[in-house]
């Protein structure tokens, strides 16, 4: 029986879990059994999983005409074996086609489909005879048509092409570093970092094995998208701080770092996530309280100088990092999310003291979850005002949080209404929306 490489076997299992349930590829790729693979196999597993999910619609479109019955619904295992094989034939030219076909056939057999394995063999042979590389010209077809159409409507043709292309690339990991000493340690371990682009504490990773990062103290080094870091950085300072939707805690850690004397309350509605959050934040001591609660139902007294609402959302700003979202999302989801987002934001406003600030953010590109949520909240809250972000960006530059170039780039991301919008790929980050609000002191 032909062998299946550990990477292909692991990728097949992860894709099956994603296809059949609510599992997320990002979580599954961080599982213990993946960490036990060699560095080369971990990298290949990640490339196969994320590449297959990113290009799924294009792969299916190329596979379907070669089937005896193009409109037939294939068994999940067969569909995944075909997609994995097609991805490798189209985008991983260092792997011999014969090996790709043999292992894809073996995956189908191992799943109990010996008869269908012949079909997998025949289809992949045809694809191998005329391989067509996956390029950025195909990127727009890798997203549901309804999604592309709404982005074109909201952001224009050029921006849509850019964000579609960005979502098809392997996201470059970014580290948050506490000091130059931490950077020197990483360099000694063969991890090469690019210069700071936006945030002075953020370093994109050029090369190196990052598996040891998880074992390090998070006070010194951790993996975190630069856009995610920026949300917490722009939130600013306070003595009493509420983080309404805190898990997994990366932004909470930054709030704690920038406000070492503050008392922080970190809230999340998921019991497993709050357990993990408590463990993650435990080194910071008693000044951080983790509370299991529904942020939309908070009844805290109005005592907080700063409230961060990094709201649950559709996640369309993270489709490169979480590509399965595009295949699961229903347009009706935006309205459902917006209703809950407004409820969370209203509770956050109630918890802010007079004169306090509320920062609302999402990793969504959809106006229903962003501008429309804030506009509805402002209309319902006479004592609330939108704070233009330019002044805060200048302060961040003077505090040496932002680079000079980053400050200029972020100024260009301020919308006419006074919001900040980071489109995926525009600044090398995931997509984020940020609104800064202030509660009347009167």
How would you describe the overall organization of this protein?
Strands 5, 6, 7, 8, 9, 10, 11 and 12 form an 8-stranded mixed β-sheet that branches. Strand 6, helix 14 (271-281) and strand 7 form a beta-alpha-beta unit. This protein has 442 residues and is an alpha/beta fold. Helix 6 (76-91) runs antiparallel to helix 7 (97-110), helix 6 (76-91) packs parallel to helix 8 (114-129) and helix 7 (97-110) packs antiparallel against helix 8 (114-129). The chain has helices at residues 6-20, 25-29, 32-35, 39-54, 56-63, 76-91, 97-110, 114-129, 145-155, 157-167, 180-188, 226-235, 250-258, 271-281, 325-328, 333-351, 371-380, 390-398, 404-411; strands at 174-177, 192-193, 202-207, 221-223, 240-243, 263-268, 288-292, 304-310, 352-362, 384-386, 420-422, 432-439. The protein contains 19 helices and 12 strands. 46% of the residues lie in helices and 14% in strands. It starts with 5 loop residues before the first helix and ends with a strand.
Averaged pLDDT, please? 93
Q: How is the main sheet built?
A: 8 strands, mixed
> Which overall shape is indicated by the principal axes computed on the Cα atoms?
globular
Number of helices: 19
Low-confidence segments, ≥5 residues, pLDDT <50? none
The percentage helix is 40-55%
